[in-house]
């Protein structure tokens, strides 16, 4: 390298250093919470906004690989770590919503609830992580920016809740029941598994309302909703079908299994010992119709609902406070 080339090279190097320093300063001042980890996974930038978001000062974080501790109680990778370690395949394992950005699989964006141990209040954060390459295309660091979108997420959750929950009992509403039944019907078809349905109706509820008033009736429905829910497994769905009628979807359940669940629900409600002087037993009881179907192509679950409804009608007809199955009691 001759003298002129050497000076030119040095000038380029010092310019690059200057630009690098300028970029670092910019990141420090950004109003967007930002941190950068180097190739060894050590934090080299933890800006003011990140300090504010996490409650963790930069002096505590710089030079360590403890950045996950600012977000989570349990050890797990941050989005920056996934980019750094080429583990983008694990995105769905760690994040509620996620995507790869642009034409490269190195840029990731994702959202999830974070514990925020130092702040002591869970926040829903949207993160973007991008790799930084040197002039030779070698990965040297990863920058992660964060957005606190807790308010938007909470509003979305509340709206979803409003759209799918019954206001009085907190159970799934009729719309949610219809959607879930359709989805479970399709799943039963794919998996060639039976799908069972229970229709649960409160006995002599008109007399209950007459005796205890509409508010008393509402409280009774809440107690029954709690009792029915307590008998459910994780994949089952209890919905308020309408008025004083509840519906229970039991995926992968045979008619025999459905009958066992139905009897458990009937007993559970009886054991609440809610007085209803208008009924034969003098306590609030329910009648339950059960039905099971094997889904077939080009069919829908309406026949399953109709069969469970007919069984319920028979249970009422035969004296109430009982369960009824198709084909076993004259149905
Ligand atoms: N308190 C209250 N009552 C309701 C609600 N929805 C429906 N009902 C009442 O439930 C009663 C249902 O009466 P019916 O359909 O005659 O049935 P039942 O008296 O339970 O008689 P069986 O079903 O034949 O045992 C009516 O009086 C409705 O007003 C509600 O959200 N709250």
TrEMBL record:
Q: Where is the PAC domain?
A: 102-161
Could you say which EC number(s) this protein's record lists? Answer: 2.7.7.65
Gene3D superfamilies annotated for this entry?
A: 3.30.70.270, PAS domain (3.30.450.20)
Catalytic activity reported: 2 GTP = 3',3'-c-di-GMP + 2 diphosphate
| Broad enzyme group | transferase
Q: Where on the tree of life does the source sit, at the highest rank?
A: Bacteria
Annotated GGDEF domain residues: 193-328
Where in the numbering of this chain does the PAS domain appear? Answer: 25-75
- Per its UniProt record, what Pfam families does this chain match? GGDEF, PAS_4
Query: Which PANTHER family does this entry report, sorted A to Z?
Result: DIGUANYLATE CYCLASE DGCM-RELATED, REGULATORY COMPONENTS OF SENSORY TRANSDUCTION SYSTEM
Matching NCBIfam families = GGDEF, sensory_box
Its name, as the record gives it, is diguanylate cyclase
Q: Which organism is it from?
A: Duganella aceris
Its organism's taxonomic lineage begins at: Bacteria, Pseudomonadati, Pseudomonadota, Betaproteobacteria, Burkholderiales
């Amino acid at each position: 390298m001759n003298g002129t080339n050497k000076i030119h090279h040095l000038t380029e190097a010092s310019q690059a250093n200057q630009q690098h320093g300028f970029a670092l300063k910019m990141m420090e001042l950004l109003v967007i919470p930002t941190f950068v980890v180097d190739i060894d996974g050590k934090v080299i930038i933890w800006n003011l906004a990140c300090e504010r978001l996490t409650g963790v000062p930069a002096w505590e974080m710089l030079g360590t690989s403890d950045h996950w501790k600012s977000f989570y109680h349990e050890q797990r990778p941050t989005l920056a770590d996934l980019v750094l370690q080429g583990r983008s395949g694990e995105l769905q394992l760690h994040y509620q919503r996620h995507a790869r950005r642009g034409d490269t699989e190195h840029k990731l964006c994702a959202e999830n609830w974070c514990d925020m141990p130092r702040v002591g209040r869970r926040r829903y954060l949207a993160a973007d992580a991008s790799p930084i390459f040197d002039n030779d295309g070698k990965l040297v660091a990863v920058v992660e920016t964060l957005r606190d979108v807790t308010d938007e997420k909470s509003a979305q959750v509340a709206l979803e809740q409003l759209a799918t929950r019954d206001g009085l009992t907190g159970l799934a509403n009729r719309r949610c029941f219809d959607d879930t039944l359709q989805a479970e019907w399709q799943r039963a078809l794919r998996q060639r598994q039976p799908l069972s349905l229970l229709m649960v109706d409160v006995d002599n509820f008109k007399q209950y309302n007459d005796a205890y008033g509409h508010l008393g009736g509402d409280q009774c429905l809440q107690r029954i909703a709690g009792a029915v829910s307590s008998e459910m497994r994780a994949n089952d769905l209890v919905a308020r079908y309408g008025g004083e009628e509840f519906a229970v979807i039991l995926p992968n359940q045979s008619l025999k299994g459905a009958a066992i669940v139905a009897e458990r629900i009937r007993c559970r409600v009886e054991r609440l010992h809610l007085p209803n002087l208008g009924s034969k037993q003098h306590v609030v009881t329910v009648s339950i119709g059960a039905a099971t179907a094997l889904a077939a192509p080009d069919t829908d679950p309406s026949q399953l609902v109709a069969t469970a409804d007919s069984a319920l009608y028979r249970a009422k007809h035969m004296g109430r406070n009982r369960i009824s199955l198709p084909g076993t009691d004259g149905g």
